[in-house]
Amino acid sequence: YSTMQKAIKLLCDKGLVITLPGRGILRREHIHTAIEGKLGATASERLFNKLKQRIIDGTYKAGEALPKLDHFVLEENVSIHTVLRAIRRLEESGIAHKQGKHWIAGQRMKPAPQHVKVAGGTKAPVVLLLVPDSHGWFRITGESRGHFLSSFSSELSKFGMLPQLVQQTRSDKNAFGGIPSGLESIRAYIRSLKNRYAGILIFSIDMKQDLLTRWIYALGTFGKPVVFYDFSNSFPLLNRKTVRLQKSFFRFYSDEQQAVASALAYLHRQGHRKVGYAYSEHYTQPWMAHRLQLIKKYAKELNPRIGIITTDKARMQSVVSSTRHSQQFAAIQQRAIQNFTHGVYKKDFFTVLKESIAAAHILSTTKGVTALIAPNDMIASEQFIWMRTHSVAIPSECSLISFDNAPFIAAFPVSTVDFGFSRLGYLAAHVFIDDIPVSGGTAGALAGRCAVIDRGSIGFCRNKKNARSEDRAS
Fold first, then answer.
1. Coil, helix or strand for 158?
2. pTM for the complete prediction?
3. Per residue in 375-419, pLDDT tens?
4. N or C: which end of the chain has fewer CB within 10 A?
């Protein structure tokens, strides 16, 4: 007993625990919560709010069992009666229910119809998926966008709901036959579904905002949810007020600013103060240049700031045109052809690939540059191969990070920023399932939560002396 007292006193002296009257010994992370409990919300209210948020976020997925009550007793340092009060409040709010001996996240739902599981059925609720055309359908299943669709479809299937495809237009020669296309055709199809219609998910489509607003309003007149998956955040002004739909409209979008800030903050914590951005000046799409602008903006806001280095066009072209590099580019092109399914013209894509890899080669050997940021995972994977073949050690000599967390990048030890599309797909599905509260605020907008996935290509700054001197200068 005396040994235990000495240990507790030592922990108190170190500031790791504290003793509160009536609360016993608390770990440091629980101190603020315990003090708040004396002044504001009770312990059961705080636990209720925490569990509610975890269910809404998908930490505890709807339809799955919550951890045992003893888990929350230990995690929150509260009594079993406090946990029970919080769980029962979840049940009263329709956010959890009891099934046998287990507490289940989400409302009590009817089991999925057996005919849906076996043969697709004819009575299951239907959620429409609106895409631009058949080409747009294949595009949304690739790269990081596939995370959203996979999570979305999995949740619908779990609750016995059927996704069905509709198209904005049939103007392309590869349009799927027999699929409703055009606004009037889609509205007629919705009317034919009657009470089976559960709502519509709109993927990013080729429309101006005025036309898109009219489409959303027309599709929202059926009284069911309209969810717009704004993958690239192209319509930030689109909200419930502009589309004239209260509560039934949602816009799910990517937060590129948070993604860029997360990547830079991660590099900054590792001591990197001079970072290269390897990109192609010939790339015609604006997203790459926009990402560079954000990188430069947030790099200046760090303290000390990170210097962003790019390459000049003349030096990059000299690397691209060299015989030695051209031979290795042929092998890279062959790999890219095998993996290339994204609908971009191969000629343009290879121009991007060549210039970006040349930029990586220059920057990774430039004095003072200790890390590279790649525009996306496809380019990062080839930059990784390039640096490995040129004996640039990753991450000891040069760190590498990119964006998207595309499925194929998991085969490479390349760190990346995940935009949180799996979580958005989960929440979008439950807008239609309607078993947990999904709130987008007054505007109906929900952003993905970005997170850095470190697969080993980010290390501490190799030039620590240079980093320390720059810190002192700042």
1. helix
2. 0.77
3. 888 888 878 877 887 788 899 889 999 999 988 778 889 999 999
4. N
